[in-house]
Amino acid sequence: MWTNKCTGCCGLTANTILHPRCCCCHSKNDDIVGDNICGWKEATILKSLGIEESDVLYANFSNDVGVNPYLILRDEKWKTIVLAIRGTLSFEDMISDVCITPESLEGIGEEFGFDGTGEYCHSGMLAGAKWIFDDLKKHNRLD
Protein backbone atom coordinates (compact mmCIF):
# COMPACT_ATOMS: atom_id res chain seq x y z
CA MET A 1 0.00 0.00 0.00
CA TRP A 2 2.58 2.56 1.11
CA THR A 3 5.24 1.78 -1.50
CA ASN A 4 2.78 1.44 -4.40
CA LYS A 5 0.32 4.24 -3.80
CA CYS A 6 -1.25 4.00 -7.27
CA THR A 7 -1.61 0.22 -7.45
CA GLY A 8 -1.51 -0.85 -3.80
CA CYS A 9 -5.30 -0.67 -3.45
CA CYS A 10 -5.71 -3.04 -6.40
CA GLY A 11 -3.53 -5.68 -4.76
CA LEU A 12 -5.24 -5.20 -1.44
CA THR A 13 -8.67 -5.38 -3.09
CA ALA A 14 -7.70 -8.60 -4.88
CA ASN A 15 -6.61 -10.08 -1.55
CA THR A 16 -9.80 -8.99 0.18
CA ILE A 17 -12.00 -10.48 -2.51
CA LEU A 18 -10.13 -13.79 -2.53
CA HIS A 19 -9.94 -13.79 1.25
CA PRO A 20 -13.22 -13.77 3.25
CA ARG A 21 -12.89 -10.05 3.93
CA CYS A 22 -14.65 -8.47 0.94
CA CYS A 23 -16.74 -5.41 1.73
CA CYS A 24 -20.08 -7.18 1.62
CA CYS A 25 -19.18 -10.00 3.99
CA HIS A 26 -16.35 -8.62 6.14
CA SER A 27 -17.27 -9.55 9.69
CA LYS A 28 -17.26 -6.80 12.27
CA ASN A 29 -14.50 -7.55 14.74
CA ASP A 30 -14.94 -5.85 18.12
CA ASP A 31 -11.16 -5.91 18.54
CA ILE A 32 -10.74 -3.54 15.57
CA VAL A 33 -11.96 0.05 16.02
CA GLY A 34 -12.02 2.80 13.39
CA ASP A 35 -11.48 0.67 10.27
CA ASN A 36 -13.64 1.12 7.18
CA ILE A 37 -16.36 -1.32 6.16
CA CYS A 38 -13.97 -3.30 3.94
CA GLY A 39 -11.39 -3.70 6.69
CA TRP A 40 -8.63 -2.23 4.52
CA LYS A 41 -6.64 -0.80 7.41
CA GLU A 42 -6.48 -4.17 9.12
CA ALA A 43 -5.76 -5.89 5.79
CA THR A 44 -2.92 -3.45 5.14
CA ILE A 45 -1.39 -4.26 8.53
CA LEU A 46 -1.73 -8.01 7.96
CA LYS A 47 -0.23 -7.85 4.47
CA SER A 48 2.61 -5.43 5.24
CA LEU A 49 3.68 -7.27 8.41
CA GLY A 50 2.98 -10.75 7.07
CA ILE A 51 0.98 -11.74 10.15
CA GLU A 52 -2.26 -13.63 10.76
CA GLU A 53 -5.55 -12.07 11.92
CA SER A 54 -5.19 -13.93 15.22
CA ASP A 55 -1.95 -11.99 15.91
CA VAL A 56 -3.90 -8.70 16.07
CA LEU A 57 -5.23 -8.60 19.61
CA TYR A 58 -6.64 -5.08 19.40
CA ALA A 59 -6.38 -2.12 17.03
CA ASN A 60 -7.79 1.38 17.12
CA PHE A 61 -7.37 3.25 13.83
CA SER A 62 -9.13 6.43 15.05
CA ASN A 63 -7.17 9.59 14.24
CA ASP A 64 -7.56 13.17 15.41
CA VAL A 65 -5.52 15.78 17.25
CA GLY A 66 -4.27 13.94 20.36
CA VAL A 67 -5.74 10.65 19.11
CA ASN A 68 -3.13 8.22 17.80
CA PRO A 69 -3.87 5.05 15.81
CA TYR A 70 -2.28 2.04 17.52
CA LEU A 71 -2.47 -1.71 17.73
CA ILE A 72 -1.58 -4.54 20.05
CA LEU A 73 0.03 -7.56 18.41
CA ARG A 74 1.14 -10.98 19.53
CA ASP A 75 4.66 -11.87 18.39
CA GLU A 76 4.82 -15.67 18.47
CA LYS A 77 8.52 -15.83 17.54
CA TRP A 78 9.63 -13.63 20.46
CA LYS A 79 6.71 -14.67 22.70
CA THR A 80 5.87 -11.03 23.44
CA ILE A 81 2.98 -8.61 23.20
CA VAL A 82 3.74 -5.46 21.18
CA LEU A 83 2.02 -2.09 21.47
CA ALA A 84 2.72 -0.23 18.21
CA ILE A 85 1.76 3.44 17.81
CA ARG A 86 1.57 4.88 14.30
CA GLY A 87 3.78 7.88 13.66
CA THR A 88 2.96 11.11 11.87
CA LEU A 89 0.87 10.50 8.74
CA SER A 90 -2.09 12.90 8.80
CA PHE A 91 -2.66 16.62 9.20
CA GLU A 92 -4.07 15.93 12.67
CA ASP A 93 -0.83 14.15 13.58
CA MET A 94 1.15 17.21 12.50
CA ILE A 95 -0.98 19.40 14.79
CA SER A 96 -0.18 17.06 17.70
CA ASP A 97 3.51 17.24 16.75
CA VAL A 98 3.61 21.03 17.02
CA CYS A 99 1.89 21.10 20.43
CA ILE A 100 5.30 21.37 22.05
CA THR A 101 4.47 23.29 25.21
CA PRO A 102 6.13 21.38 28.06
CA GLU A 103 3.57 19.79 30.38
CA SER A 104 4.44 18.90 33.96
CA LEU A 105 4.51 15.21 34.82
CA GLU A 106 3.76 15.85 38.49
CA GLY A 107 0.05 14.91 38.24
CA ILE A 108 0.76 11.89 36.04
CA GLY A 109 3.45 10.83 38.49
CA GLU A 110 1.01 10.94 41.39
CA GLU A 111 -1.52 8.89 39.39
CA PHE A 112 0.99 6.24 38.27
CA GLY A 113 3.36 6.12 41.22
CA PHE A 114 6.49 7.96 40.18
CA ASP A 115 8.06 11.28 41.10
CA GLY A 116 7.23 13.68 38.27
CA THR A 117 8.33 16.76 40.20
CA GLY A 118 10.39 19.00 37.93
CA GLU A 119 9.87 16.64 34.97
CA TYR A 120 8.14 17.74 31.76
CA CYS A 121 6.87 16.15 28.57
CA HIS A 122 5.95 17.24 25.03
CA SER A 123 2.26 18.13 25.50
CA GLY A 124 1.12 16.69 22.14
CA MET A 125 2.81 13.34 22.78
CA LEU A 126 1.50 13.23 26.35
CA ALA A 127 -2.07 13.89 25.12
CA GLY A 128 -1.72 10.98 22.68
CA ALA A 129 -0.35 8.67 25.39
CA LYS A 130 -3.18 9.63 27.75
CA TRP A 131 -5.73 8.94 25.01
CA ILE A 132 -4.26 5.49 24.33
CA PHE A 133 -4.26 4.65 28.05
CA ASP A 134 -7.89 5.79 28.39
CA ASP A 135 -8.89 3.81 25.28
CA LEU A 136 -7.22 0.68 26.65
CA LYS A 137 -9.11 1.12 29.93
CA LYS A 138 -12.40 1.79 28.11
CA HIS A 139 -12.06 -1.44 26.11
CA ASN A 140 -10.84 -3.49 29.10
CA ARG A 141 -7.44 -4.21 27.55
CA LEU A 142 -5.38 -3.57 30.70
CA ASP A 143 -6.70 -6.53 32.67
What are the main properties of this structure?
two-stranded antiparallel ribbon; alpha+beta; 143 residues; globular; 5 helices
Draw up the topology in text.
Elements: H1 8-18, E1 32-33, H2 40-49, E2 56-60, E3 70-75, E4 80-85, H3 91-98, E5 102-104, H4 106-112, E6 120-122, H5 123-138
Parallel strand pairs: 1-2
Antiparallel strand pairs: 2-3, 3-4, 5-6
Helix pairs in contact: 1-2, 3-5
Task: Describe this protein's structure.
By secondary structure, the chain is of the alpha+beta class. 36% of the residues lie in helices and 17% in strands. The protein is built from five helices and six strands. The strands form two sheets. The chain has a four-stranded mixed β-sheet, with no helix packed on it. Strands 5-6 form a two-stranded antiparallel ribbon. Helix 2 (40-49) links the parallel strand 1 and strand 2. Helix 1 (8-18) packs across helix 2 and helix 3 (91-98) packs across helix 5. The longest helix is centred in the last third of the chain and has 16 residues, at 123-138. It is globular and about 50 Å long. 12% of the residues are buried.
